[in-house]
Description:
It is an enzyme of class 2 (transferase). The chain has 349 residues and is of the alpha/beta class.
Amino acid sequence: MSSWAALFLFSLLTGITILYCAFQLYPAGTRFVSRNRALVQDDSSRDFIPNPVQQQRLNYLRHFCQAKRKKDGGTSLRTFIQQRFLEREQKGHIFVSRVLPVLYCAVPKVASTNWKRMLLLFDGIKSNISEMGVKSKVHTQRGLRPLYHVKGHAMPKVIKDSFKFMFVRHPFERLASAYRNKFADNNTYFEKTYGSRILKMFRKDLSKEEYNRGRGATFQEFVRWIVQVEPYDPHWYPATKLCHPCQIRYNFIGKMESLLRDAKEVVRRVDSVHKFPKTWTDGYKVSSNDLMFDLFSTLDEKDILGIYKYYKEDFDAFDYGLPRIQHSYNNKNNLLLRTLKKILNGKLT
Length: 349
């Protein structure tokens, strides 16, 4: 082989090696910006400019976190990760995209199923929403990447560099929705797992079979059980404890009341190809707003105060006060509103 041929072959192999290494260091989907003539990975969370509504929500949350730190000292993100809270408590609730610099905290009963579907679309695991039917087990589908799968030393950077978002809902409306879906609809798993415990706690005259089946727990019994036992289940667990917004600094706080508008903004920010489904329904004839007032009418002041205290940090962090009243509900002067007004005005503690 001539020296020129050898030199050509060496140059070709060197070029291929460089390209291969570059691909390994910067996989497809990584964006770059020029900074001092050097290529650096773009921190996508830094160039997000919130609109006025978002700025108001984020400011409100920041003030809540500042007050919380003054009161109990707070926990830094690094300490938070070292103590492995994310692995122990948040398994399966905080996700990161495999392709885009995106982090999402899933709060159940706040369109979380559709947002998990969107993550699968972002990552190319699925090509369209129609592939994932309404009853598909998106919660257990392969492809979603929980944050705790990220190695501890890399987690701070992943969190810092990601566009971080979550969606919330009025705590009482979310609680009512969870009760209907998991208990009133005769969900066998929840009845046997939790309904049985509730009945054993509040009813002393049932048969062994009735206790084991766990069917028929009332909303009042459900609320009193949560207040007294504080059981962990993501479907009714406070959003502040699921998502830890004082440790993870979210860039976007969406709300159920403005779901489609907020979802459109998130999708525009992270991925312009896929769209959040416009037609969203839970399939119930009675709205969750009306349901909330109907269910809370079965409680007394002590019950409402107790469950308010359970969700107090959600009320404070996400600027929730009196629940919105839909036109379909006529009885506006009910116990829930009267009691909440007393609580918020400091007349009931």
